[in-house]
């Protein structure tokens, strides 16, 4: 493969990469971290001069917390954030009482995290960027993609730098993580189909407020739903001294003023606070809530992730989380193709799996937003569905279930966690054993492990499992793990059973005993 034959404006060979990532938001950085730990050469370019400011998507859902834990940033995100507070409803200067917007879910053995975690998006990006740097990667800030061409061997990207110079970059694959106005998506001519969720604009801002004397504590998410001109919410941002202000307008023709003075006056007009109480406006933006999805998530050697592929209303905290999981789904597949000889057709499964998931999640965000606007207190509650733990790829091309009577976990489902023990009775969680960029064959009970040349339901060649497969036996002869409290049996069903778990934590093959099949063509 000729990847080093493109020169920049100075005549020197352009840097060579396996993957060029355009955009350094949460999706682009998640992908870059995942590829770096796999030894895949990724080049990351970002139009901005630094990481994007703003709390923006501030909710990390339980499934994304599992992803970040696997990528080595779980503890940092836990320490930097905090749980969501209860809501406090106001009318003018009166506090009417607290209530829960989030449906509180009890802890369970099959999940290490049972609640969303609040973390400003700028801090999420900082943590991911630090992890990328730790792994030897970096981001080229002030570098914008202006065009691209692709051929059978790779992609040539045209870049413009902040100093006015220009150049090109060559990579085997390119990933667009460049946001809702994606330059890459437009260059490919991929359409975006969707709707305006709310015709009226919304202002979002990060502010520092001296409001304790007026009842604005940091133990509640304060809301004035009947404020003049539209509702407003002030949410204390965990791990900071800031609040996120979110102000909706009733008038679709309103023209909000997002200047610092405008934000101060907006808060003063709709709450008991004075403009002078807003000590600082760190960042502010205006948007009109939309729900839209790209018609395709792939065109040849180019992939769309995050907002480049789908745009959400902020209601329900789904946008950032869906973006992170796009990257997590794509990362291991690129790694298998580029480093482990997997069939390049494996990459077709990215769109096949993620597009229907994104469509379903868009529906959740839109429904919650519209319920809020309609004053439907029940409909706007964040239930367990926003945690994204039940999202499955059962209908995708990488799900083969060879059992006559499937148990609680089917091929395509997220593999559940379970408290276990090492043979010496030292407690350990199953997820601690699964962590890492490899496949794991989970052998439960006295099931007979497949031979080294096992076809895993016809998927082995497509997945490229050779050389990156670890076998873990739970119970049975010579076990690696014990199930003293039966949590594995409850989560996965009783043995004997075999589960092939993908690097992104989803089961791709389940069986009672190994069988031989014709290699999969990834067509179903």
Automatic annotation (TrEMBL):
Residues 17-362 form the FAD-binding domain. The keyword Flavoprotein applies. Residues 397-421 are annotated as: Disordered. It holds the Pfam family Rng_hyd_C. Keywords: FAD, Flavoprotein. Its cofactor is FAD. The keyword Flavoprotein applies. Gene3D superfamilies: 3.30.70.2450, 3.40.30.120, FAD/NAD(P)-binding domain. PANTHER family: BINDING MONOOXYGENASE, PUTATIVE (JCVI)-RELATED, TRK SYSTEM POTASSIUM UPTAKE PROTEIN. NCBIfam families: PRK06184.1 (NF004832). This is 2-polyprenyl-6-methoxyphenol hydroxylase-like FAD-dependent oxidoreductase.
């Amino acid at each position: 493969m000729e990847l080093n034959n493109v020169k920049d404006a100075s005549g020197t060979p352009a840097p060579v990469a396996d993957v060029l990532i355009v955009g350094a938001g949460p999706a682009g950085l998640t992908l870059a971290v995942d590829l770096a730990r796999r030894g895949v050469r990724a080049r990351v370019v970002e139009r901005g001069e630094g990481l994007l400011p703003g709390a923006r998507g501030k909710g990390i859902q339980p499934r994304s917390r599992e992803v970040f834990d696997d990528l080595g940033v779980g503890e940092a995100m836990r320490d930097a954030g905090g749980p969501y507070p209860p809501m406090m409803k106001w009318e003018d200067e009166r506090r009417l009482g607290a209530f829960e917007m989030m449906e509180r879910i009890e802890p369970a053995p099959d999940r290490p995290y049972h609640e969303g975690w609040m973390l400003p998006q700028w801090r999420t990006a900082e943590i991911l960027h630090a992890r990328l740097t730790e792994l030897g990667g970096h981001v080229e800030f002030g570098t914008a993609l202006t065009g691209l061409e692709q051929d059978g061997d790779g992609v040539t990207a045209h870049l413009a730098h902040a100093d006015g110079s220009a150049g090109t970059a060559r990579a085997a694959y390119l990933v667009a993580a460049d946001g809702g106005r994606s330059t890459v998506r437009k260059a490919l001519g991929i359409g975006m189909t969707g709707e305006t969720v709310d015709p009226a604009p919304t202002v979002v801002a990060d502010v520092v407020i001296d409001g304790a004397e007026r009842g604005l504590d940091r133990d509640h998410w304060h809301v004035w739903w009947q404020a003049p001109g539209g509702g407003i919410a002030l949410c204390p941002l965990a791990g900071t001294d800031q609040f996120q202000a979110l102000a909706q307008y009733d008038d679709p023709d309103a023209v909000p003023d997002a200047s610092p003075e405008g934000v101060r006056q907006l808060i003063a007009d709709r709450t008991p606070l004075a403009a002078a109480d807003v000590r600082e406006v760190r960042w502010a933006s205006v948007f009109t809530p939309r729900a839209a999805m790209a018609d395709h998530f792939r065109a040849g050697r180019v992939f769309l992730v995050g907002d480049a592929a789908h745009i959400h209303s902020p209601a329900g905290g789904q946008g950032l989380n869906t973006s992170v999981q796009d990257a997590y789904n794509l990362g291991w597949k690129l790694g298998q193709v580029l480093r482990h000889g997997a069939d390049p057709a494996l990459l077709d499964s990215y769109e096949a799996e993620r597009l229907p998931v994104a469509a379903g999640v868009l529906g959740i965000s839109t429904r919650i937003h519209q319920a809020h606007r309609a004053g439907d207190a029940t409909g706007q509650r964040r239930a367990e569905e926003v945690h994204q733990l039940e999202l499955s790829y059962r209908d995708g091309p990488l799900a083969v279930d060879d059992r006559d009577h499937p148990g609680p976990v089917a091929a395509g489902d997220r593999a559940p966690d379970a408290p276990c023990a090492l043979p010496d009775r030292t407690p350990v969680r199953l997820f601690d054993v699964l962590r890492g960029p490899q496949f794991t064959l989970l052998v439960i009970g006295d099931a007979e492990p497949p031979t080294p040349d096992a076809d895993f339901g016809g998927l082995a060649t497509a997945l490229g499992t050779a050389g990156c497969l670890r076998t873990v036996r739970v119970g049975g002869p010579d076990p690696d793990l014990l199930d003293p409290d039966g949590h594995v049996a409850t989560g996965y069903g009783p043995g004997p059973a075999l589960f092939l778990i993908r690097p992104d934590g989803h089961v791709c093959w389940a069986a009672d005993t190994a069988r031989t099949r014709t290699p999969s063509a990834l067509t179903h």
